[in-house]
Design goal:
single chain; mainly alpha; membrane; Membr-assoc_MAPEG; transmembrane
């Protein structure tokens, strides 16, 4: 069950790299068109400096990539805890649901970006992550009931 529990995390890592490439593939040409290629960037510049400079549709990919570096950082250790202590099929199913929702969220944010739908996807994925975190807490706190 360890591999089955870790597989969703591996897929989300791969998806994050895909989003990074998608972001670069849209941002770099847009920066060139805006007259601010990488060689022209000011020292110490950050991605946020491109807000209002590049079209919103281009920046949406960067926004999503940043999101993939935020909440999923809680997902990864949760999955590892469950894989080490003993995940169930239900845990693996929840992990896959979380990853599926995050991928749908990414595609939605990077293309359509209607906030009400995006928020609903985020909320659903957060509920699933909370269930996973609760499971990880339960299996660790109650792993050795004789100690309590």
């Amino acid at each position: 069950m360890q591999a089955q529990m870790l597989a969703p995390a591996a897929v989300l890592v791969l998806w994050s790299i895909i989003m990074l490439l998608w972001m670069a593939g849209t941002r770099l040409p847009a920066m060139g068109k805006a007259g601010g290629g990488l060689g022209d960037a000011k020292p110490g510049g950050r991605g946020q400096d491109l807000e209002g400079v590049l079209p919103d549709r281009v920046n949406w990919k960067a926004h999503n990539y940043a999101h993939l570096m935020e909440q999923p950082t809680i997902f990864y250790p949760t999955v590892i805890i469950l894989a080490v202590v003993g995940a169930t099929g239900f845990d693996a199913m929840l992990a896959w649901i979380y990853v599926g929702l995050r991928i749908i969220h990414s595609i939605w944010q990077a293309t359509v970006n209607k906030v009400s739908i995006r928020f609903a996807l985020f909320l659903l994925s957060t509920i699933v992550l909370a269930a996973l975190a609760l499971r990880a807490t339960m299996v660790t706190l109650f792993a050795n009931p004789g100690v309590l």
